[in-house]
Amino acid sequence: MNSDTVRPSVHVDDPSLSTNAFDKHQDMVRQALSRIGDISKSVYGSSSLSNLKSVLSLKDQDVTKLRIKRAIKSEGLNYNVYISFNIGDQEYWGVVKNIFTTPEIKSEAFSDKNLILSTEWIVKTKGIILKLLKRWFMPQFGKYRLLSDDIKCFSLETGKMIHLKSGSEIEILKSYDNQIIFNFEGENYSLKGDDFVYFNWRFEQILDDNKLI
Q: In order along the chain (213 residues), what is the average pLDDT of each group of 10 residues?
C-alpha cells in the first residue's frame, strides 16, 4: 500500500470531546434548562407566591387623606356622608349611606381593576373608613366655642330649652355615636340630630388659655 494514499487516523485523547460526548453534553444542558423552567413555573404558579404578592401589594393599598366633602340628611334620622380618600397617589370618591343607623359604603375604589380587590381588603378598608368617620363625628372632651348664630339645646335636668349664641363657650363631658353631652353655665345639656352631625362645622375647639388649637 502506498503510504501516500493512507489517510491518517484521528485519535482523540479526551473521549469527552468526541461527537457522541458533545451530543450528550447538549442533552444534559437541555434537560437542566427544562428542569429550571419547570421549577420557575411551579414557583410562580404556586398559591404561596400569589399570597405573598397579595400581602406585599395590599400594604400599598392603605387609605390616606380621608376627607369629608359634605353630610346630607336623607330620611328620618339617616345621614349620607360624601367622602374622598387616597390609595397611593390615586384619589377616589365615595359615599357612606345611613352612617348612624345601617351604614353602607360605596366607592369607585372597590371596582378599580388596578387594585387587588380581595374580599379581606374590601371589608377591612370599609371598616377603617367607617371607624375614622364615626370617630370624627364624636368630638373630644374639652372646651369649644360656637361659630354659628344660634343653636337650640335642652337641659338634661329640667328639659328647659335654651338658645346658644355665637361666641358661647361650652365644655363637652361625653360623646356618643348619636349625641353630645356638654356643660354650659353650670348646667348639662345635650346636642342631637343636625346639631350633633354638624358639630365640627359649627364649633371650634379652644385651649384653657383661650388660644385656638
A: 46 46 58 56 47 52 91 86 93 94 94 90 93 91 90 90 93 92 95 91 81 50
Is there a contact between 99 and 80 (Cβ–Cβ < 8 Å)? yes
- Secondary structure of residue 109 in the 3-state scheme: helix
Q: Are 191 and 182 in contact (CB under 8 A)?
A: yes
pLDDT at 13: 46
> How do strand 169-175 and strand 179-184 relate by DSSP bridges?
antiparallel
User: Residue 2: left (phi > 0), alpha (psi -120 to 50), or beta?
Assistant: beta
- What is the topology classification, in CATH, of domain 142-206? SH3 type barrels. (2.30.30)
Question: Grid coordinates representing 26?
Answer: 447538549
CB-based burial of residue 70 (10 Å sphere; 0-12 exposed, 13-18 middle, 19+ buried)? Answer: exposed
Side chain identity, residue 91: E
Which of 55, 48, 176 shows the shortest CA–CA distance to 124?
A: 55
d(CA 19, CA 39) in angstroms, rounded, equals 31
The amino acid at residue 106 is K
C-alpha grid cell for residue 15? 473521549
Query: Please, where are the H alpha helices in the chain?
Result: 19-44, 47-58, 119-136, 193-197, 199-202
Q: Which amino acid is at 97?
A: K
Residue 190's beta-bridge partner residues?
154, 181
Question: What does the block give as the cell for 167?
Answer: 361666641
Cα 162 to Cα 43: distance, rounded to the nearest angstrom? 71
Burial (CB < 10 A; 0-12, 13-18, 19+), residue 95, is: middle
